[in-house]
Amino acid sequence: MPPENTDWSDHRKFLEEARTRDAQDVLSPFRSRFHMPPHGAGEALYFTGNSLGLQPVGAKDIIDGELEDWKRLGVEAHFDGRRPWVSYHKEATEDLAELMGALPVEVVAMNALTVNLHLLLVSFYRPQGSRTKLMIEAGAFPSDRYAALSQLRLHGLDPAEHLIELSPRPGEHVLRTEDIQDRIAQEGDQLACVMLCGVQYYTGQWMPMREITQAAHAAGATCGFDLAHAAGNVPLALHDWDVDFACWCGYKYLNGGPGCTAGAFVHERHANKPDLQRFEGWWGHAEARRFKMEPDFDLMPGAEGWQTSNAPVMNMAAMLASLAEFRAAGMERLRAKSLDLTAFLESGIHAVAASTGSRLEILTPSDPAARGCQLSLVAHGHGKALFEHLTNQGVILDWREPAVIRMAPVPLYNSFSDVAEFLGILHAGLRGDT
């Protein structure tokens, strides 16, 4: 964090503190392993890794390698390529398992996020008798809500009666742990499945995932999470937390590029259950006999059993370069830097607000244990004009209606100096010094 009681009128001290922090940062070399978008004669200030991560420098070589194998080997690259395509998804397994706090058998890279969510809900939302309700958070990412509604309709259930949407208390922005637990207990034997986000896309709240899972299981319900904004952002322990299922995308904090292959987690206790309902496809069929083209499905154990199709190689290649950087950096070190970097940004926003007399409201929890690196900011009285000022000055942020600026200082490639420069531009915008 910057010096206590930082006076924004002496912005130089803030910049000096940032440079000192950067000089001490053991992860600072990783910035050069990602391509920062240009702005003018220099670089943009990129704080949108929560929407699309930056391109790893190593991505081009991996993609070029797959193109070369296709050119040189054609179909034979499925078995004879430098990374055989027939098992390409396995290239990501160990790294994803490490990031998710999972066993290798519990994770698989496949499909896109909402496709995986549907495939998992087919298995883990199984309404029977009076146990029919599906729980999500109010204000969930629209695609999650669409998926939930369509799953209810698939079972002939009316969403107005069977969908539970958790809302914060009046005047609050985030859900309280005790309120989530109380509502789960209240629904009791009417609840079939709890499906919440890991990190809420709009507020940046990191949900109490262990506590939610325990409460769901105590009520007799299954429990899963959409980790789109959690994977690569916060430390996860899906296996130890006893989560039933989870899914995530590969293009945000995992830096796999637009539309990158997503992933899924299924706890090992569900690893070999042929009677567990699922949508089947040939890549979930027993690997050793897959090419015998047998008419009857023979389930692969673990998360791989939810596969329906072979890996989209070109769509997955860039993510392998990013996963290598995560492996080298280590999630423990990334989390430590993330805590410092986000706190540095938070305290700077408060200093700017005090200096300019502005009302800057951070929707994201102030408790570091309840957030990742994203902060969601409302600049009351300024609206989108402030966002446009920041954009024009080379700050790449994210706007969400009606009035939220989302920013994410990503520890893999953002620096303390990035944050200090951004705060100077924010200060000028609030003062009208454009």
Q: What is the CATH superfamily label of the largest domain? A: Type I PLP-dependent aspartate aminotransferase-like (Major domain)
CATH fold annotation of the largest domain = Aspartate Aminotransferase, domain 2
What ranges have pLDDT less than 50 throughout 5 or more consecutive residues? Answer: 1-5
Number of separate domains: 2
Largest sheet: 7 strands, mixed
CATH class of the largest domain: Alpha Beta
Oligomer: single chain
Strand content: 5-15%
Separate helix tally: 14
Please, could you describe this protein's structure?
Helices cover 38% and strands 14% of the residues. It is α/β, with parallel strands linked by helices. It folds into two domains: 8-35 and 330-427, Alpha-Beta Complex (Aspartate Aminotransferase, domain 1), CATH 3.90.1150; 61-328, 3-Layer(aba) Sandwich (Aspartate Aminotransferase, domain 2). Strands 6-12-11-10-9-7-8 form a seven-stranded mixed β-sheet, with helices on both faces. Strands 13-14-17-16 form a four-stranded antiparallel β-sheet, with helices on one face. It has a two-stranded antiparallel sheet with strand order 1-5. α10 (238-241) links the parallel β10 (222-226) and β11 (245-248). The longest helix has 26 residues, at 331-356. The chain is globular and about 70 Å long. The relative contact order is 0.18. The model is unreliable at 1-5 (pLDDT under 50).
